[in-house]
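Newbie here. two chains, one complex. Structure please?
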Amino acid sequence: MTGRRPRVVVAGLGSEYRRDDGAGPLVAARAVEHAGVGCDIGPMTDPLDLLGAWDGADLAIIVDAVRSGAAPGTVRVVDLAAFDGAATPAGRSATSTHGIGLAGVFRLAHAVDHAPLRVVVVGIEGEDFGRGTGLSPTVGAALPGAVNRVVDLIREVHVCA
Amino acid sequence: MSHGSGSPRTIGVEGLSRVEGEGSLRVVVHDGTVTDVALEIFEPPRYFEALLVGRHFTEAPDITARICGICPVAYQMSACAAMEDACGVTVDDRVASLRRLLYCGEWIQSHALHVYLLHAPDFLGCADAVELAESDRGAVQRGLGLKRTGNLIMETVGGRAVHPVNVRVGGFYRAPDPDAVAALADPLRRARDAALATVDWVSRFDIPDVPGDYRFVALRDGDRYPIESGRPSSSEGLDASPAEFGELVVEEHVARSTALHARLAGRDPYLTGPLARYALNSGTLPPLAAEAAEAAGLGPVCSNPFQSIVVRSVELVLACDEALALVEAYAPPDPPADDVQPRPGVNASVGTGVTEAPRGLLLHHYEIDQDGTILHARIMPPTSQNQLTIEADLRRVVQGGLDLADDDLQWRCEQAVRNHDPCISCAAHFLDLSVVTT
């Protein structure tokens, strides 16, 4: 990664009109602002919009609210390089709000040689996905920590360069 | 899923894939006759109409854009048209042209996505776009290239590839730089070639011949193919103003769905979207798109929903061709937006806006007071208008495919739904939720 400035893109997935689902776009925007580098390519509600937007990136950071059963506000970082895409069920049996989920989009990008070098997902456990704007207090309190994790990821790449 | 002598055969798909939103469908066949078809939508209602009440009229384009990540421009354009109608403003021709260019970008994005990633796998025996990419990487790359060109238009004119931020009631916050717009020409020429290749590609698919008997509803816009403006029209002679059309359509709630079901004159189901647009406007296609349609074997009207992928591809040619012409003729609107103010001294001004979203006619209707506060909002997306017709399609497809194995029939049913590219997350947004179960 020498000789040129690494390209880091950050995308927040989610809708600000579904309470904690809006955490992803908020974290992405704040992290890019704090880091002073990187490019916020969101907000997005459909992982398919990543296709094209993340092409050629050295690092793509996807920030999304998740519901895994962990305590609300928990922040998890998953590196998709270690992800076994082949184990993902194909579209025929998949249930998805958007046709192809993030894992499918990542596999598709690989299949056409448009995947970023590295994709990292930063998940924030949500509590309230009901209608309306504004985060729940627990998730709101976790926001600075999530922003710092994303800033660290951005800076790691730039320091390495 | 079960069937046997005397017992109903039930085809159930609990999670529809490759449609926008969450839905399921249920078909029951008894003694060789389809007895029940239900396209069920179980995405929670989105209450955008309620959310708009009390907000300022200038906020409607940005708020409603968030209803859908695939067609935000459609929501912005219909919202702007409705608010400008309420305020008695007709925008400058240059603003109108720039809106049409932005809308072309969305059509290119949306149609490329649906044709290549969501619909083509149905015809090629692939489970999904990933499998298609593994077997025909060039085709998927062509589709993604088209989508990127759509993104480029959205970024240049709208300021962002998704949920554009440059749109406002009256026009745009900033007129795009002429050099940046001119730079779209080369990508658009390549995209137009790719769109022509797309029509050729899909026209060679093995497409089931299951014609429907549709009541088509789409805009007509003089001698132009309708995109950002026009009058609601039908294959049965309707020619209405946007406001009259809004009054003609009655939406009803059914317990199984959180989307409203629309009927014309409270009675007749109808179809909006590419098949309807094409049927009512094929004579206005520019020569390149018209030639592509003819070479693909399309007549002036196409009533086979499985051929909607061909019609959508012809519209891709149209959108690239139109966008290129608009880019070449671009003159920045100055000012970039007309001044739009609520009518002074009028307590409740009403306005209706209709445009052609990629999936069909999208109507917004608002009532605002003299301070610009929204008093009432009604949003009628294409999918809720099409839902009854999609169910009728399913009934016909199942009746004609009873000799198929359950898996194949289920697959055919899912295809029948995807033919109309339903955006279920757009449709599920109505105000009153009163589910009655008995």
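Moderator note: The beta strands of chain A are 8-13, 39-40, 59-66, 75-79, 118-125. Chain A touches chain B at residues 15-17, 41-46, 48-49, 51-53, 55, 90-100, 104, 107-108, 111-112, 114, 131 (CB under 8 Å). Thread marked as resolved.
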